[in-house]
Amino acid sequence: NLLLPDGVPPERQWARFYVKIYRAEGLPRMNTSIMANVKKALIGDNKDLVDPYVQVAFAGQKGKTSIQKSSYEPLWNEQIIFTEMFPPLCKRIKIQIRDSDKVNDVAIGTHFIDLRKISNEG
Q1: Residue ranges of domains in the chain
Q2: Is the pTM of this model over 0.85?
């Protein structure tokens, strides 16, 4: 197979990759939706609520946790499972904390995990 990089065997096994999401701390107070601004103006509600969830992308696949309503220190204790060939050709995992909104979800923070830094050479 000409598409495989040097050193990757043509016969690869399927593997499961488990990403465990425990919690988040110190999320910013934010809510930029139009309804939140109307609610603030009409009833004086000044809470900038965050409804966070975590979205994980790996090797063209995406998974996400449940949404934790109105939480600045959410606790998930969930895992996302990806099934991919081993060794994977994708070398990083994208982890993004997002604020759920009815109109448009907003990214709060993004981090990439480099698999080469956490993997065994063999």
Answers
A1: 13-117
A2: no
Question: How many Å apart are CA 17 and CA 24, to the nearest integer?
Answer: 21
Cβ pair 103, 73 in contact under 8 A? no
Per the CB < 8 A criterion, the answer to whether 89 and 8 are in contact is yes
Tokens describing residue 85 = 């060939």
CATH number of 13-117: 2.60.40.150
**pLDDT class of 90 with cuts at 50, 70, 90:** confident
Which residues does 1 contact at the CB level (< 8 Å), separation at least 6? 10
